Amino acid sequence: MPAKKPEKILKTVPMKKTDTPSAKPRTNQSHVRLVKTSEGNRITVMPGVKNRDIPALIPGNWKNKQQYLQSGRYKKNHGTVFTATTADANGNKFRVRVRSIRGHYTTTHEIRMLAELRKLGFKTEQPLGIVQTPKKERFIVTRNIENAREGNMSDAREIWAKLVAAGIHPTDLYEYGKNNFLLVHEKGKKTVYLIDVEHYYALKRDSKLALGKMARKEKK
Where are the stretches annotated Disordered (predicted)? Predict the structure, then answer.
């Protein structure tokens, strides 16, 4: 039986940037790009993602998938969450995290919120893009960041104050509530990291985060 041909990029279309005018060409990597593949996938590439990283967004390039069966999306039949190994155009391999976009979310809100949190200095995953399959499934793809740091979540109120001061409120965050943020004291500096509650168990086994009971333990 002949081997299946690898999925290829057929067309890349720069999309009009509406927020700030730019004298740079519209093919600039700071713009959103729409990519169509030979398998009928439509990929929206986030600004700042290098052209060489676009092949990493192609579903046919996702290997060694590890499903998160404890994911809230999976449990509520809202889709799937998994990590996979992929590669850029130069063959450099790295891990991505792929999440189904829940039906009651807008297409871009969640990934734009992640991008906004990064701009504000929060240590989140890097949003790469949105993939829509021929079956109309929609996935957010982010560069996976293994964050195995431990910290004290009793400072959740301080974290929440930082979010509110930045203009981010619970209605904007959806699943990114205050118990998803970990305040870490590193070399005398306080740093806020985004920890997705769906993936606590993927951290160090001896970490209290891995127990999935942090919110109940820290509530007083």
Answer: 1-28
- Answer for the pair 32, 17: CB distance below 8 angstroms, yes or no: yes
Q: Which residues contact 18 (CB under 8 A, 6 or more apart)?
A: none
- Asked if 132 contacts 41 with a C-beta cutoff of 8 angstroms, the reply is yes
Quote the pLDDT of residue 54: 92
What CA dihedral angle connects 46, 89, 96 and 24, to 10 degrees? -10
Cβ partners under 8 Å of residue 8, min gap 6: 37, 38
Which string of DSSP letters, residue by residue, matches 72-104? HHHHTTS--EEEEEEE-TT--EEEEEEEEPPTT
What's phi and psi for 159, nearest 5 deg? -60, -45
118 Cβ contact partners less than 8 Å away, ≥ 6 residues apart: 124, 126, 127
Task: Spell out the residues 6+ positions from residue 114 whose beta carbon is closer than 8 angstroms to its own.
Answer: 124, 125, 127, 142, 194
Helix (H, G, I), strand (E, B) or coil at 13: strand
Contact 73, 86 (CB under 8 A): no
pLDDT at 67: 80
| Residue 71 near residue 105 (C-beta atoms within 8 A) | no
Question: For the chain, how are helix, strand and coil distributed in percent, rounded to 5?
Answer: 25, 30, 45
Smallest CA-to-CA distance from 5 within 58, 84, 83 is with: 58
From residue 39, alpha-carbon distances to 8, 60, 63, 87 in Å are 8, 9, 17, 18
pLDDT at position 82 over 70: yes
